[in-house]
From TrEMBL:
CDD domains according to UniProt: MPP_Mre11_N
Keyword hit for Hydrolase: yes
Any one GO biological process: DNA recombination
Gene: sbcD
Protein name: Nuclease SbcCD subunit D
Assembly and binders: Heterodimer of SbcC and SbcD.
Organism encoding this protein: Stigmatella aurantiaca
Length: 446
């Protein structure tokens, strides 16, 4: 084969050509297939064992801009947790604002809708609203209200095609805190029914506005029934695990529900149209095996056409030595010696994050020193050293290996302390009160 024949156009160029061809065909045939890109849980400002993820986030945001353009996307939906904390660093905020500015410059017709998540400060996200509104960007950090009703002018977002026609309406409901919920007279769960009423009122207002041919889209940041959590970086929200929300919050006339909070991409209740996009980066070592992605959603008129996952390139890998169960210190040191050498000129920021797990018969005071000496000159960054003890008696054998205090959820600590001090089982009402107090503390801290 000749050199000329062996050359192939890059994938982004082929995607761009395909998008243009599809748009032209749609215009000729009198229909329009709207393209949405669903993402969530960016967690800008996140650190992994005190190691900054700034470079990884910068690479993701650059890739996202290229993908929005290459795929001819009409609307970007960001379903919460823009930031990792309610008080993000100046660098994290700069990355957020720079992304919005660059997206507006490169893609002036792109619809951008963002909702707040449980990690975000609602007030912080809402503060630039006058500026964002002038730019045609809708950010709903907290649940907006008027004196006697919800503020549907902010909660309902029209999505326009390239010719300015409205093709869909978004019910952009942010993370709902218990204080946001109406008091519902019900024999069921008060919090769940309060959430149901907020979504029901918002979707009904959207139905009154939309016209034939316009799709109904919902956004939410919540924990749904029958989903899978990442234990080290997520927690059940809305007052605890008694309040997992049912999938029927989103009736069948909702063409697509773009959800955030869970870092593992997944469908809800087996429905193709109700999805978590997942996080674009692994936010804990336990998420290394996830497929980190965004979702390209096509709406065909009022209905869902297709959902296509687009894998986010991983710029920094996560490795575990050994790959599975713990081995002896001698075996661990031998495996570390076999790791690739760092090459001159390499940036340490691109080296894999490394967890080292070792089985020990007794505490080894020199463990960290021996492991760090074995890693000298290796292209790896040690972020976690996990000893597991093989003894069958004593306190160490009763402790779950590999989970440090910083990794334990507040609920776990509360349950352990209660079990230590009291013989009776923990009452559900007491656990519920703990979750309510925890939510108040976290909100006040923001």
């Amino acid at each position: 084969m000749s050199d000329q024949g062996s050359k192939r156009a890059p994938s982004w160029f082929l995607d761009r050509v395909h998008g243009v061809v599809e748009a032209a065909r749609a215009a000729k045939e009198g229909w329009y297939r709207m393209r949405l890109l669903h993402t969530s849980d960016w967690h800008l400002g996140h650190t992994l064992y005190d190691v900054s993820r700034e470079a990884e986030h910068a690479a993701f945001l650059e890739w996202l801009l290229d993908t929005l353009e290459a795929q001819s996307v009409d609307a970007l939906l960001v379903a919460g947790d823009v930031f990792d904390t309610a008080n993000p660093s100046a660098e994290a905020q700069a990355a957020w604002y720079q992304f919005i500015a660059r997206a507006r410059k490169r893609l002036p017709q792109l619809n951008i809708t963002v909702i707040g998540g449980n990690h975000d400060s609602a007030a912080r996200l809402d503060a630039p609203d006058p500026l964002f509104s002038a730019m045609g960007v809708r950010v709903v950090g907290g649940l907006p209200r008027r004196p006697d009703s919800l503020d549907f002018e902010r909660l309902l977002v029209p999505l326009h095609d390239t010719r300015g026609h409205i093709r869909a309406w978004v019910a952009a409901v942010p993370y709902l805190r218990p204080a946001d919920l109406p008091l519902v007279d019900t024999e069921g769960d008060r919090l769940i029914e309060g959430v149901r009423e907020v979504y029901g009122l918002t979707l009904e207002a959207a139905r009154r506005r939309r016209e034939p041919g316009q799709a109904l889209v919902a956004m939410g940041h919540c924990y749904m029934v029958g989903t899978e959590l990442s234990q080290l970086s997520e927690r059940r929200i809305l007052g605890g695990n008694q309040h997992a929300l049912p999938v029927d919050l989103f009736p069948e006339d909702v063409a697509y529900a773009a959800l955030g909070h869970l870092h593992k991409a997944q469908r809800v209740g087996g429905r193709e149209s109700v999805r978590y996009s997942g996080s674009p980066l692994p936010l804990s070592l336990s998420e290394a095996g996830y497929r980190h992605q965004v979702l390209l959603v096509e709406l065909d008129g009022e209905t869902l056409g297709s959902v296509k996952p687009l894998t986010v390139p991983r710029t920094v890998d996560i490795r575990r030595v050994p790959e599975r169960s713990e081995v002896t210190l001698e075996e661990v040191l031998a495996q570390l010696a076999a790791l690739p050498e760092a090459e001159a000129g390499d940036s340490a920021r691109a080296w894999p994050y490394l967890e080292v797990c070792v089985s020990l018969p007794r505490p080894e005071p020199a463990l960290r020193r021996k492991v760090e000496e074995a890693l000298v000159g290796k292209a790896a960054r040690l972020v976690k050293l996990t000893p597991a003890y093989t003894g069958t008696g004593g306190a160490l054998a009763d402790v779950q290996p590999g989970i440090s205090l910083r990794e334990r959820k507040p609920e776990d600590v509360f349950k352990a302390r209660y079990a230590r001090d009291y013989q009776d089982p923990l009452a559900p009402g007491l656990l519920e009160a703990f979750h309510t107090l925890l939510t108040e503390v976290e909100e006040n801290a923001s």
